[in-house]
Write a structure and sequence with these properties.
Layout lengths: L6 H17 L2 H10 L5 H9 L18 H13 L6 H15 L2 H12 L5 E4 L11 E5 L2 E9 L7 E5 L5 E5 L5 E5 L10 E9 L1 E2 L7 H36 L1 E2 L2 E2 L4 H30 L4 H27 L10 H13 L4 H11 L6
Parallel strand pairs: 1-4
Antiparallel strand pairs: 2-3, 3-7, 4-5, 5-8, 6-7, 9-10
Helix pairs in contact: 1-4, 4-7, 4-8, 5-6, 5-7, 7-8, 7-9, 7-10, 8-9, 9-10, 9-11
């Protein structure tokens, strides 16, 4: 049995790589990062034209009707160029939640708008994974109160999907009365996450009261998988940048790539990274084709690639020497992207603990 991308998926990969690389040379990445918006309309519109925003949305709702593995191919390309768009929240987590737990009316209202790129969603589920004191959202009757921290892609969002406990998720307009959005400062300026404060906000509950348990579970799982694919793409580019620099940088009239120690550093980075692409791909494949295997594979994929990327970002910087810390090389944009991805939706330690519980090795 051969497991890999189909010819159509390879074409998809090539299309998005060409698009993102043409749109985002280093100077453009630097310019957009300095704006600190996590959004560029030109790139977003290009993704809409390529049907990326509706990649996993069924055709009946105006989407492309593709599978999660196809979305992963796109996400790897976005990670490779640290693309400043709210893709994970809008095109992955929100559609998964709506398709899993939304009423038919909610699906018909929001999925076509997402597919057409007319609305951007931020997703707030952090409090179900770890929470700060006094933070979190509560539901009383049909009214929401509280603070949702680190709402993914919340900066440019028009709408929010906010979890209120493990079994309720609310659709909240950004401009609704009682909603206050505060942009959070992280080291990664290519995406903007927010704190959303809710004061007596009327809730439009996904599927109805107490009916979003499965939607929240799958939303978090899909988000973790999306972040893993994004990290993989960013880590791969850091390796290529290190190798290219080693070929150009000379020491004692020799390219440093000719020194065995530097060769070993580059080889170790590839060795650390390579196994996780197939694991991430398989997790994406399992999402649609073998759902019973998805959870464990997603947990291991994200925890594993986060650890590998930690090694790669450090080693790639070391290959660059002192230049690795400068804005001239721009390596820090990828460094920061994988660093924030590591923290979002659970650190490697948390995910490995969750995997052990899921497999019965630890008590819940």
């Amino acid at each position: 049995m051969e497991f890999g991308l189909s010819d159509d998926q390879k074409l998809l990969e090539n299309s998005f790589r060409r698009f993102t690389e043409d749109k985002l040379p280093l100077e453009r990445i630097r310019e957009l990062a300095n704006k600190k918006t996590g959004y560029d309309a030109d790139i977003w519109n290009g993704l809409v034209e390529l049907a990326a925003t509706g990649v996993i949305i069924p055709e009946q709702y105006g989407g492309a009707g593709f599978k999660m593995l196809d979305a992963i191919v796109i996400l790897e390309s976005l990670g490779r160029t640290v693309t400043p768009v709210p893709f994970t929240g809008t095109a992955i987590m929100a559609p998964v939640a709506l398709l899993t737990g939304g009423t038919e009316a909610q699906k018909e209202e929001w999925l076509p708008q997402i597919a057409a790129g007319e609305v951007k969603f931020g997703v707030g589920v952090t409090e179900l994974i770890s929470t700060r004191d006094s933070k979190g959202v509560t539901l009383s009757g049909d009214v929401l109160n509280g603070n949702a921290m680190f709402v993914i892609d919340g900066g440019p969002a028009d709408m929010y999907l906010i979890a209120a406990g493990p079994d309720n998720m609310a659709i909240v307009p950004r401009n609704a009365p009682g909603v206050t959005v505060t942009q959070l400062t992280t080291i990664d300026y290519s995406r903007m996450h927010t704190e959303v404060k809710l004061e007596n906000v009327k809730a439009d509950l996904l599927g109805g009261k107490g009916k979003a348990t499965e939607a929240i579970r799958k939303c978090i799982m899909a988000g973790r998988l999306a972040l893993a694919a994004d990290t993989w793409g960013a880590a791969e580019v850091m390796i290529y940048k290190a190798v290219d620099y080693a070929k150009e940088r000379k020491q004692f009239e020799r390219a440093i790539a000719s020194y065995q120690a530097v060769k070993h550093m580059c080889a170790e980075m590839i060795t650390e990274l390579d196994p996780f692409r197939s694991l991430i791909w398989y997790a994406g494949h399992a999402y649609d084709e073998a759902p019973q295997e998805t959870l464990i594979n997603v947990l291991l994929a994200k925890s594993g690639i986060d650890e590998a990327a930690k090694f790669i970002k450090r080693t790639a910087t070391e290959v660059h020497g002192g230049m690795g810390f400068t804005d001239l090389m721009g390596l820090h944009y990828w460094y920061k992207r994988v660093s924030v991805n590591r923290a979002l939706l659970g650190t490697p330690e948390m995910l490995r603990n969750e995997a052990a519980i899921a497999q019965g090795w630890l008590a819940a």
